[in-house]
UniProtKB/TrEMBL annotation:
The keyword Glycosyltransferase does not apply. The gene is AOX4_1. This is Ubiquinol oxidase. InterPro entries: AOX, AOX_sf. It is found in: Membrane. It comes from Stylosanthes scabra. GO terms for molecular function: ubiquinol:oxygen oxidoreductase activity. Keywords: Electron transport, Iron, Membrane, Metal-binding, Oxidoreductase, Respiratory chain, Transmembrane, Transmembrane helix, Transport. It is an enzyme of class 1 (oxidoreductase). It comes from the Eukaryota. The chain crosses the membrane at residues 150-171, 213-232. Belongs to the alternative oxidase family. Its main location: membrane. PANTHER family: ALTERNATIVE OXIDASE, UBIQUINOL OXIDASE 4, CHLOROPLASTIC_CHROMOPLASTIC.
Length: 372
């Protein structure tokens, strides 16, 4: 038999390469990537996760990474759904947040979605610019006068809600709107902001005529601007209100952290005690759309508690304004009940429209709304 003339090191290299190829083939056949339907491994509860496709490799030592990534994607999807986009009329969204086309081709849907995202980006950029401009003016005028600044803020902050109601009542007069939940929630928000204003007046925030003059004239301009903005794009108007409420929350939060010990030594204004601890708190629960009624009952013992609850009110306004940016997403907290499964369907049958253009179009193409 003829022996190979290959050197020993080449024989060893060839043998090693053959073994590595065989091992790779065997590993891919035995430990193929498995697809699971349901929550990632090591999850405590399968019901708390939506159905998703999860790739798990038994040989991997980084099993927790896909779970973190999935959570981040869910957070991003929720943010886009609430703040940055509204579902297209030619597509529906499943539980995973992916669009499924009902009619039309994917190219048209993609271009429409891209245009909508561009419009939303422009709207939010304008809102942020306007808010930052007003904040700079207030910082210059009221850097060391807290109560006067709060008086101006609360005079401005209550304006959007009765501006929204003005437009909705106009739509209602023409038979374009029959969603009572929006009117109830916006009135409750206005009622809450009005009591914030009364508290600041009792603390002396309106003692100087210039502060009253400035706040009242800004409020008039703001009302006209909000009515026009809400008639053209409710989504943009709600986002602008969210920006204003977010600034109010940050302002009160900084004030509490800086003056908290002093505030605990001062008594609470009577109007604050009556509002937060009064007998009928229906309207107090009404504007907190992310909470179940009767779950928040403040205790007012000093001025610190008053500002703490005002700050928390502003946080609730932010949540409601964020929810309103998705059309038809707002419901009164008192509209829900454990045994009422048909309310949502009834609400969907009520007439409504999004902006003046949509209202005019629907008034021509649909039948008049019927009062419930």
């Amino acid at each position: 038999m003829r022996r190979s003339k290959c050197p020993p090191n080449q024989i060893h290299a060839s043998y090693t390469q053959t073994n590595m190829a065989a091992a790779t083939t065997l590993s891919s056949s035995l430990f193929a990537t498995t697809t699971f339907k349901g929550p990632p491994p090591h999850s405590s509860s399968s019901s708390s996760f939506p159905l998703l496709t999860y790739k798990f490799n038994p040989l991997s030592t980084r099993q927790s990474l896909p779970r973190v990534r999935a959570t981040m994607l869910q957070d991003n999807e929720e943010k886009v759904k609430v703040k940055e986009s509204v579902p297209s009329k030619i597509s529906t969204f499943d539980d995973s947040g992916k669009a499924s086309i009902e009619s039309g081709d994917s190219t048209t849907t993609s271009s429409s979605s891209s245009f909508e995202k561009f419009v939303i980006k422009v709207e939010q950029s304008v809102n942020i610019f306007l808010t930052d401009s007003v904040i700079k003016i207030l910082d210059t005028l009221y850097h060391d006068r807290d109560y006067a600044r709060f008086f101006v803020l609360e005079t401005i902050a209550r304006v959007p809600y009765f501006a929204f109601m003005s437009v909705l009542h106009m739509y209602e007069s023409f038979g374009w709107w029959r969603r009572a939940d929006y009117l109830k929630v916006h009135f409750a928000e206005s009622w809450n902001e009005m009591h914030h204003l009364l508290i600041m007046e009792e603390l002396g925030g309106n003692s100087w005529w210039f502060d009253r003059f400035l706040a009242q004239h800004i409020a008039i301009f703001y009302y006209i601007m909000t009515v026009l903005m809400y008639a053209i794009s409710p989504r943009m108007a709600y986002h602008f209100s969210e920006c204003v409420e977010s600034h109010a929350f940050e302002t009160y939060d900084k004030f509490i952290k800086a003056r908290g010990e002093d505030l605990k030594k001062l008594p609470a204004p009577e109007v604050a005690v009556n509002y937060y601890t009064g007998g009928d708190l229906y309207l107090f629960d009404e504007f907190q759309t992310s909470r179940i009624p009767n779950t928040r009952r403040p205790t007012i013992e000093n001025l610190y508690d008053v500002f703490l609850n005002i700050r928390d009110d502003e946080a609730e306004h932010c949540k409601t304004m964020k929810a309103c940016q998705t059309h038809g997403n707002l419901r009164s907290p008192h509209s829900y009940s454990e045994d009422d499964d048909g309310d949502a369907a009834l609400c969907n049958l009520e007439a409504d429209c999004e902006g003046i253009v949509d209202c005019l179009k629907k008034s021509v193409t649909s039948s008049p709304a019927r009062l419930k």
